[in-house]
Fold each of these.
Amino acid sequence: MPHDVHELTERTRAFVDEHVLPADDEHDGDVEAAGGDDLRRRLQALAREAGLLSPHAPTDLGGLGLGMVDRAPVFEAAGRSLFGPMALNINAPDEGNIHLLAHVASSDQRERYLRPLVAGEHRSAFAMTEPAPGAGSDPGRLTTRAVRTDGGWLVDGHKTFITGADGAGFLIVMARTSGEVGDNDGATMFLVPSDRDGVHLVRHVGTVDRSMIGGHCELALTRVFVPDEDVLGGVDEGFRYAQVRLGPARMTHVMRWTGAAARAHEEAVRYAAARPAFGSTLAEQGMAQQLIADNEIDLAATRALLMDACRALDAGSRASAETSIAKTFAAEALDRVADRAQQLCGGSGVSRDLPVAKIARELRPFRIYDGPSEVHRWSIARRAVRRLGTS
Amino acid sequence: MPHDVHELTERTRAFVDEHVLPADDEHDGDVEAAGGDDLRRRLQALAREAGLLSPHAPTDLGGLGLGMVDRAPVFEAAGRSLFGPMALNINAPDEGNIHLLAHVASSDQRERYLRPLVAGEHRSAFAMTEPAPGAGSDPGRLTTRAVRTDGGWLVDGHKTFITGADGAGFLIVMARTSGEVGDNDGATMFLVPSDRDGVHLVRHVGTVDRSMIGGHCELALTRVFVPDEDVLGGVDEGFRYAQVRLGPARMTHVMRWTGAAARAHEEAVRYAAARPAFGSTLAEQGMAQQLIADNEIDLAATRALLMDACRALDAGSRASAETSIAKTFAAEALDRVADRAQQLCGGSGVSRDLPVAKIARELRPFRIYDGPSEVHRWSIARRAVRRLGTS
Amino acid sequence: MPHDVHELTERTRAFVDEHVLPADDEHDGDVEAAGGDDLRRRLQALAREAGLLSPHAPTDLGGLGLGMVDRAPVFEAAGRSLFGPMALNINAPDEGNIHLLAHVASSDQRERYLRPLVAGEHRSAFAMTEPAPGAGSDPGRLTTRAVRTDGGWLVDGHKTFITGADGAGFLIVMARTSGEVGDNDGATMFLVPSDRDGVHLVRHVGTVDRSMIGGHCELALTRVFVPDEDVLGGVDEGFRYAQVRLGPARMTHVMRWTGAAARAHEEAVRYAAARPAFGSTLAEQGMAQQLIADNEIDLAATRALLMDACRALDAGSRASAETSIAKTFAAEALDRVADRAQQLCGGSGVSRDLPVAKIARELRPFRIYDGPSEVHRWSIARRAVRRLGTS
Amino acid sequence: MPHDVHELTERTRAFVDEHVLPADDEHDGDVEAAGGDDLRRRLQALAREAGLLSPHAPTDLGGLGLGMVDRAPVFEAAGRSLFGPMALNINAPDEGNIHLLAHVASSDQRERYLRPLVAGEHRSAFAMTEPAPGAGSDPGRLTTRAVRTDGGWLVDGHKTFITGADGAGFLIVMARTSGEVGDNDGATMFLVPSDRDGVHLVRHVGTVDRSMIGGHCELALTRVFVPDEDVLGGVDEGFRYAQVRLGPARMTHVMRWTGAAARAHEEAVRYAAARPAFGSTLAEQGMAQQLIADNEIDLAATRALLMDACRALDAGSRASAETSIAKTFAAEALDRVADRAQQLCGGSGVSRDLPVAKIARELRPFRIYDGPSEVHRWSIARRAVRRLGTS
């Protein structure tokens, strides 16, 4: 780790410990997930002051311009609190949207959408997933349609699991502009202010995780007008842009969740080291040592796979294979880490006395979000067969 | 399964489907866990009418007098709803307390405490566990003390994780009447109405599970007077009675949780059978079939180990080895079942759209409650070494 | 366990300890697997003398007539030595063939084939499996054909993984007498003395396991004549008879392998109890206790599932679901048991110093033989979907 | 990977495919493990000719001077054949001994012992491990003693699991020169020609793995004279030197075994891609895809952890934590890879028809050799507690 990244990581960690963790517990389970935008604005103001806001954003927009490798330790340090990524403006989906817009937005869009997003003035959402049998693990099932109208497009469709949609300033909506359902091209991305006519928040899906500001929402889009200047990039180029966003977004998820799981592990080790047991401490018992060691191993392997993928991304590769493997391993390994942390802490591991149970609850869906492990395994296996099967 | 148990099981299942499951979802996450006593009274009245209330209680008190083997399918059918055991009055800790009182209570105690408990007129709690380093995995660490006073005893101590304590009619309090902390004898059980002076509910521990009526509570006992007629059984016999309660209580937990996990599995199989995927259904995909098959195997093995232990208990054995193995396996296997069910259901498996996520949340603590898996493994291993190690 | 089965089990165990285990080590790795027929005849003579030969065979043929439930502990006791089942004449495939012939053979066949088989005068093989893409996990792929000729049939085909074929007195050959490859009927069973013209032993497959007398062989059948009196049961009834054989044969495999795994576990526990470590013994270390406890749990669950299936078989059910679940669980659990036993024994667990490594090596293929776990899971899942998927 | 390492890796792979793999199968199970020194000399001559011999050795001795990071892909390519490391002279223990001698040997020892070792003129062994309760997982239990005599030392002791001892040109013997059994210092390394009086090969331990030339041997050392010029490095510095050898030796084991496991995986993928199943190929079945994907993930995580540790070693760190985690993960992950490969190949996976079963057999002991996983977990946990437990 270069010196300045190390220093930035340390400062991030200290900032999270001092300012963010205290807000973490008190807001758990709020009706308005993750404390709401008031808390977000308060924490982001502190992060701005500390020079920590939007470290991944382009420097000309006020970010620190960190590449993927350099993001990893910083994002992990932020992820130790469930609200840390929100405080630093590196939360999903904003973080991925910043990445996407930085690559694709026109200079005008850059000013209207990206700059205020980097500054924390509004939030965003990425509206791709649809209720079954629409776009999901297979994006080509995209059914939302945009048709030409005077000076722009009219979008109709139904979206679900749209993270952060409630309260977002704008949505990036993926809609089909050509081809048929099942085609792997013909999609376009549209920038849509959330208060535009025809955008309707149907409901919060009501997931077990509750730390994402704006929740995971179901949206109905009814004849939503999008002027030509709000088409993001080229018409029919949406699937290609989604790939640009995909790999890095997978990996920053891993970074953040590694931080959360590492914190659960730390809490559990501290608990075990302090807890008397059988004339010594719990941490001296063999079965507890096994839980602790397995957590260390899972965290180390997660980070090692993550860094491999980040190096590939920084080198300009799409790194689909590397990010798919790293995501799949990480989602399962971090879930195990949190589960073992719970087990180590006994009753305190399944109650509010420690943050461990909460972290476990938040982590579980990561084995499903961003592609269920089974879908990743399917594509990993197919790659292996293509590479090895005919030699 | 004998015919009448089969029929009773079917009726229980139908009753739960018709009357209990509808209440299940709507009360999740209530401040007052498990819907509260109003709901309990309403459901128990329906169960009484259906002839299903307290099937394990002695027949002279209005129960059906089911042994352990016969309880298994009935309790499992009830457990399919998180509120089913409450509706049938076979919930922990009442179920175990009924079992205990039927064996130990005087005829006077039988009328004052047991009969109304069987009838659902009040609830009870079993106050043994204490905050560390008190009684827990090692009951001999019991620190709550009872000292002689005129006509009875004065009890002082601190209890935690006391299930159902909030709103219970009475507590069975385990207190040390002789010996020192660390001794494996010298404990006595006391029957204590919850409104007795000196009984103070400190807090709900705030566990992740929320389906136990009366929650899991921390209690302070300060100079609580217990008259001699409310000593349960003999003085200094408490640890022996706790053993009477222990094995069956472990197994009825397994029965109920098997029902919950089986329901999660059923929901997941139905979901997978209905969900289109890759030109067929999700249930036709190999990785989904593996999840389904592993659930079938885990459920079958859980039931097989459970029935082995129940046969041993019905034959009069204490069955410590069998119940320890069955509990440890079941707690882990049922947790896996619920986790796989979540994975099968994708986004719906981590949201309120299906009951699967809720069941998974409720099941997790069972690997810690009633003895963490690690403590059970420790005793299982020691038994194996005694049996095999020197031959 | 009824008294006499308990006593028979104890006698079997003592017999194996005294007479069979000494032969076990010295013959490992012989070119002629499992010591050969000289050793077999010597051990079977001792077993006959001890009244232990062929305990599962019909009483009128000199067996003890044990049902499935009663076989379980006896076969497990025999299985503690890799040669124990051979010594008692309850080895695969003879044991299953005795079971099959007792159900299907004509009285003449009974005298010519079954009686000497029960008496240990010759061995047998069951020739169903064929090289891919022939009969295997899918028996309907049967390609070996029998066509009518004067006074009998001419059989042509290719078989592989035919256990015990080298040195067998006769084969039970499954051949297609009607229908096409892929049909699930149209097969007939033929009794074929091994020295019949046209029966050719191509090779020993060379599997990692080496304790099955007669090995696992590949056979070529070229215009093998079978007279009508050697058709086993009815023409075109072969698949139905194979089902008769299947369930019990699966379960007796489990019985025998449970014995082998239990012995590995016992050896490991004894090793750990005697081995000094960290001021105590290895068996007192937490991670070792976890290995020991997990073995106890896996063995208990294997036996519990096995007994469930045996009760169903004794009650007259085909028990396809129960035997499939029990076989799948057992094959994986017993493999884990042997692996943990190896780990507990350190260097001695991967050398000839203890029988543990040898048992692990013999057990591994059981996850593939008699249907790979994946094929069983496929059928288990399909049953679950049929049962639950549409309700 | 820098270009020349990539090219060297490709050449190594081609060399192994052409020259070494053909010898691999035919020598399996030889009494003289690994084909013996005639085969070694033949293969090493070919490697010398190809410029591939001893790539890790110092350039002034004719090696290529590869650091740890650069060794990884080359050693993995060699490890694809069980005899590949022998052919390239990068087998344990010679490889580690070359590393050790290059750091510690005097210039005279360098000429007499190291140069011919690099050239493949003789082999070596590292004699540290002793029968229990001597030096093993706890090196401080060292009981072999060296006492001063005229012009040198007399060594007495008992060693076991000494890899390659049979036929080795010389041994590096670890003996206690001061302190008591249990002390973590006071050891010295001695260079001992194998034909020196008093060196006695007691037996081959008879492990399940059979690909290490010279086997794993038990040695008796009786008044073995070592002249002063054959003391390796300083007196009483042996434990420190052992640490120098330890980390790199752990990692080169991982490199070689990764190659073996990767080959088993490749064979299995090819088998699955070619095998018809259910109207498609086995490789298209979901459960097979899961096995394939899990292998890809385990291999990727193994390599990622390995490279992390190698970077740390190349940077001059002792990297005890990194190498311990990487070794523990790798030993278990590679064992899983080989096991899944076996399962994918069905009957061919447990026979000699494919090299998969053989590779699985060779890999199993790696979870025990070089520190059993349990001992590594113990030290990993203790490190975690020291780092986290008191903060």
Note: The CA atoms of residues 32 and 278 of chain A lie 45 Å apart.
Amino acid sequence: MTLDASLADWRTTIDAALDAVLQPHDDAPAHLVEAMRYAVFSGGKRMRPVLALAACEAVGGSSAHAEPFACALELIHTYSLVHDDLPAMDDDDLRRGRPTVHVAFGEAVAVLTGDALLTAAFRVAAEGGVRSGLAPDRVLAIVTAIAVAAGERGMVGGQALDLDAAGKPADLTLVEAIHRRKTGALLGVAVETGALAGGASGRTLEALRAFGRALGLAFQVADDILDAAPTAVTGKRAGRDAEHQKATYPAVLGVDGARRVACDLKTQCHAALEPLGPAGDQLRALASFVVERATA
Amino acid sequence: MTLDASLADWRTTIDAALDAVLQPHDDAPAHLVEAMRYAVFSGGKRMRPVLALAACEAVGGSSAHAEPFACALELIHTYSLVHDDLPAMDDDDLRRGRPTVHVAFGEAVAVLTGDALLTAAFRVAAEGGVRSGLAPDRVLAIVTAIAVAAGERGMVGGQALDLDAAGKPADLTLVEAIHRRKTGALLGVAVETGALAGGASGRTLEALRAFGRALGLAFQVADDILDAAPTAVTGKRAGRDAEHQKATYPAVLGVDGARRVACDLKTQCHAALEPLGPAGDQLRALASFVVERATA
């Protein structure tokens, strides 16, 4: 199957699963669920769920085992965007071409929407993980890995470093420290989650962890490069990183230097996948896809 | 053992466990961990962890099995206070007699501190639950119950209803709908969590669930009554509910009416505990303690 066809399949699976998770419920205020759905169904690329499903399939697992965690990762990613867009944070009013949640629903509801999405992520991971038939101890290993990657040692920690660095002189060490956490950690754990749900262990699991680490950073470098693109391409306001004096790869290395880093990381991704042989082909194609959208 | 002595013991246990969970870590930005600790170690009553440990002991379980979940519940409670105090929410500058997190660390760090505390709660529950030796399927049942109670069907949903109701005419149905979710859900699941960690099932588990539901509501009614008290007693600014035109029990029933509701709920708590016999004595005393601080 081509990568495009696989991507379409994975996204259909994920969107159906997210739709099931975010149904109206008698106990949940309707406007809160509406805001959660508004945030989640806004044309995202579903990169984290795609990586989880692809990694699960690459190790010969059933993607049904990875699906609850794929949902959880997308809910966590979405909550982070909702909170990141808040006036007290990046103060963005546009995301994927639409008003951000706090513009559409008010700031208080946006705070709560993020909180509810983050909480729902762990509900889905725990409840759905059990229901998928995966062994409970493996479900718990995955929930723990996701929580570590999403928390103060991972994504939230990266956002705190990022805010702290804004407007200060940045060097490559700092930029990498921020991005490994802010984006890299969750993308990396998406790969690990899929591998664990698919039954991977030993050398295969290690190979996929290394792949996830390189891919997570590659994705962010590519994103930084694309930030210079006009709104019509990315659906968010262009040049926001520069406006906020964010620590980015293009800021410390220039755009060409950032492109070289992205290409190096793609090579690392491919090298990490060698132990998987042809089973790694879709992941290999994903790594190329991620990097080439910013370097082609 | 007297209730006072038990409370002191439980709080010492919880504070030590929280301290271990919130240690500096190479991967976590120091100022974020500092803000997390500032929020958590601010003289809270640890009511949710206390309920979890007390319920676990009441069913003959080892409190070591309930400890990770007790921590998780306190982290969730704390994050909800940090976010609730934000300018976009209740805009409180004082909590337990100290500047709130956004006053002390800035608004962006306060958003992230709440996010990190919520995420850490699920890390502790999953990782600590396994480490405690509790069966993995029981750990997952507890994690799921906590996520449901903390999310859009529970605590976060209650906060959304609460914000939505501010300034509008409130009736008893609405006030109860808000408080059952906003405070009741997490207090209720604290009792359930302790019971599950302690190995309860069948009639005992049902009895403790009923106790938790009644106690959760009783706690909030008492809190509403105490809101009229001066700052010196509660450590927060007095009369904030009325200032925000919040839907509260005293607002719809008057203070005397609210006191009668609190006393009725205490009776319900005690009735629910009957199947436990003398093993329920500490929980019985806890219910009296919660209600009597507002009605004595």
Note: Chain A has a mean pLDDT of 93.
Amino acid sequence: MSIEERLRSNGIELPHPAAPIANYVPCVRSGSLLVVSGQLCLGPDGKLAPAHTGKLGVSVSLADGQAAARLCAVNVLAQVRALLGSLEPIKRCIRLGGFINSTADYGSLPQVMNGASDLMVLVLGDPGRHARTTIGVAQLPLDAAVEVEAMFEVG
Amino acid sequence: MSIEERLRSNGIELPHPAAPIANYVPCVRSGSLLVVSGQLCLGPDGKLAPAHTGKLGVSVSLADGQAAARLCAVNVLAQVRALLGSLEPIKRCIRLGGFINSTADYGSLPQVMNGASDLMVLVLGDPGRHARTTIGVAQLPLDAAVEVEAMFEVG
Amino acid sequence: MSIEERLRSNGIELPHPAAPIANYVPCVRSGSLLVVSGQLCLGPDGKLAPAHTGKLGVSVSLADGQAAARLCAVNVLAQVRALLGSLEPIKRCIRLGGFINSTADYGSLPQVMNGASDLMVLVLGDPGRHARTTIGVAQLPLDAAVEVEAMFEVG
């Protein structure tokens, strides 16, 4: 199955990708490396839902945090497709960086980030298995619950 | 215009770059990739000004935060020039990572980081347009207001 | 002296590397780049010691934080050896990212991270000298005191 077929068979629709909210670009390719800017958990309408706004450990539940992380990963893939015209040039997801807007004592950071990791493996299959760093941060742009950045190998 | 000419025409002077404050190096080149250590918002005198010390949302204003982020970017370029002897080998700024020392409810993280992004584009032109991740962190070395790390493609 | 000899002569034993605590992999190689997932300060028994759990500035002392950072670096090397079968293919440590679980006013972040940097230089010698970014974060997985991610050049 191609990556695009896997998207369809899983009912995943990539949104029109968000424009950067400041003076930078969504992705930069350098040789076979593709670096994707941190993506927030914006929904398909380009907006941050109330359920995906705020902190894990305060107003955002684990399930909503996981859904937010999944949205970040969907938005990462939307940016890649906007740059390359397709997801097929992806050889490998090298790394995801996961930033969770959380309290200082939140206990389920990896479980939240799994929402992004699981989506990447669901869409890309084995080449979607990536190195990962997950941290709980004091604050994120727009008070988003999750932000995910990525590095891919592309051919 | 060369990069060095753009520096001069914009009145930007790169400082004598700061020595790492611990057991590491400012930049590492690996093939065409150049990775620059997180740079703090030290001034041209190598010191952290009171206006650029502390947290956004407490003691540091948005304007001071933007100036701090710009200083970080200037210091990134100073490190690159110290390693390569010139900025001309820069083909592209691939990525900036922006770390803002902020309260848990600070609302203008991207605007602060624009101070760094705008400087990079001002100096490098179109090849200065980079992928970017901005997060608000609990604390930074020396209680600096901003820290910026970078990755470049060099030729 | 080979890297493995330097390990032995310094009495450093690499543990059986920890399995990722979620749906990702410990390391990804892409060409000459090797990216290592954020490693927590798990001990040789694969467990997080109470002394290496919690925040710098609250319950974790500077000395314990440094020991935790050193453990993270040991675990990074254990993951590299598990993937490559040996540490000898390492040409260079390009970058360490250091995430310190800290209060909002903790004052010794770089000193904590030195525990990781010093170990890397001790084991790899001059090629162990790396670019580095150190930040204080709100929270880490398992409430670990320190997490370290890495990028190497391998041959």
Note: The two ends of chain C are 18 Å apart (CA to CA).
Amino acid sequence: MNLERAAKRLGINLQRLQSLQETIIKTSSWPEPRLLRFEKEASGVEAGTVIFESGEVVFGYPKIRRAMMLAPALEKHFPDTLAVEEKMNGHNVRITSVDGEVIALTRGGFVCPYSSEVARKILPEGIFDADPDLVLCGEMVGPENPYVPKSIYPTDTIDFYLFDLACKNSKKTLGVHKTHQFADEHRVKSTALLGEFHKDRAAEKIKRTIKQLGRRGREGVVIKDPENKVPALKYTSSEANCNDLAFAFRYYNDYALDFFISRAVREGFQSVEWLETPDERKARALRLGESILMPLVETIEKKQAGENIVQKVQIRVRSLQTAREFEFHLRRSGIRAIFGSPEPIDDGYLIRISKLIMSTNDKTQALLEGEMW
Amino acid sequence: MNLERAAKRLGINLQRLQSLQETIIKTSSWPEPRLLRFEKEASGVEAGTVIFESGEVVFGYPKIRRAMMLAPALEKHFPDTLAVEEKMNGHNVRITSVDGEVIALTRGGFVCPYSSEVARKILPEGIFDADPDLVLCGEMVGPENPYVPKSIYPTDTIDFYLFDLACKNSKKTLGVHKTHQFADEHRVKSTALLGEFHKDRAAEKIKRTIKQLGRRGREGVVIKDPENKVPALKYTSSEANCNDLAFAFRYYNDYALDFFISRAVREGFQSVEWLETPDERKARALRLGESILMPLVETIEKKQAGENIVQKVQIRVRSLQTAREFEFHLRRSGIRAIFGSPEPIDDGYLIRISKLIMSTNDKTQALLEGEMW
């Protein structure tokens, strides 16, 4: 492992890098290539940053902060104009090439075997030939996304949408225009560019966009400086906030606490900023209340009927090796899952996966039996 | 401090008691009488237990656990019949006499100067004469309860409702019948006894009671074994759960996280257990959503209008010394509050208090100015 070279590229000194290896930096030797990953942010290096054997670095994609009150946030944050892109709801990957092999890194800096196979299938051959240092930053979405399955996008399986470009060993990303230009040239899908506006007029435009996206079940927008001078911001639809809540309360003992508060508070700010009428506010309250109550009721009734509380997802793989590796990958990520027998299909295998939601399952059973909270 | 005597009464050995003094047991030397308080449960001794100079002990009132699914909880928990009492919404005090002086202890084991003055005013003279070891366990409620102000009870100021009796140096409480008998004999108000039922029929009866209480804004019930053989259980109305949420979301950055999840989950179990129709479920979802959204909107709009986010309460005291002491008591409890000038009234002074909700106040201001979450 060429740590000296990596330290230079990370902009920290070698001793500091070595000292982090016991706490912040973890080794991942599987699947290949072997790498070091920053489990948390440290010394200004983003979480999810990875170092390969050669000392090459792929920086973690910067966390995008959220506007709560849109108009003042845009005014305060952006110098001039801004570009609005759709924020897609899936999992964030960085796809790059190491020793000629295409790999997909998760947010946390693991090589995901399934995402890597999907990337190899979807991306045009030789996309990294001209520039092997390129890093494609984008979202994997669709019903066969085993992390966040969603049927709201035009795919029956899983697809990849580019939203930014980066280069190995550089913290900077290339920004809106270069990304869309690259996507066009290489016939890669990219997240929809919904417009460029002066910051004074943008809040009203975004409000309209967000309402339309919400009606279609879509998540929201990422707002970027076209010149890439300041970090991007995100802003989401009420429907997306409520969908998150529904997920959290379906698995109330496993997820709810982490998810809830901020989503509810967003609803308050959006309702105030949009000057809603009493009827609109009531409709929002009902949507919010239903997104909490109905999944709870479903979970409790399901358990009452003797079913287990699980989340069912599925993947489609060319090789069974990928499925086995993905099973191991989920396990190391702390997710307990039962993999069904592979069902042969045209181009490989369909695998149905049941993610166990142990805590909610057991808690619901106990409460139904008269246990106290 | 007679620790040896106290240790015997607590049922733990002296060395153990002494060792706890550095961590779990804190001294409170003000207001008089000086005492030691268990800040947390330890060695089977309930949190809030206090030891006086003489070595006399007043045990903490046992925490009452909550039924989530009522029928199976009653079936599992109670041997035979059960008594249902109204659960009142205020603050829990233990009133006792020390060296001839009546004092009210808070849940945490502090002497509350205001509650003590209220107790002296409300309770009949000489109530402790026959038995100076008596401890009256009850709820202080009303609009001038500075902890939990509520206008749903028949008082314009603050009142005390007895719900159990205990004796100094004894962990056991005397239970339903002795408590109501004592209340009748001494003309002290007690929490309403709503009925005694066999456990098989109780869930249906309690459901009806809870719905009626909910419609009147009341909190719920405490379910007790009339023979005091097993600990009590509590169960609350949907309206009370939603009221708690409304409070939590009004002060979303100060309280919400602690309050929320369990209240929402209760709504799910109640809806399932009561076999609600789709319309009833929708009404419950709306109530739940409104209890979250509306207080958020109010808080944000209030801050937008330039007002500070504070909680206004008031107390009525005979002596200004009590008000000064209560100010100090709030401060030591970690509550920041501004006390208005005392307004002379018939029988003393009215004091308006603004409790500062700093975190929500500052966060809301920042978000309105375009800060990111």
Note: Chain A touches chain B through 53 residues (CB under 8 Å).
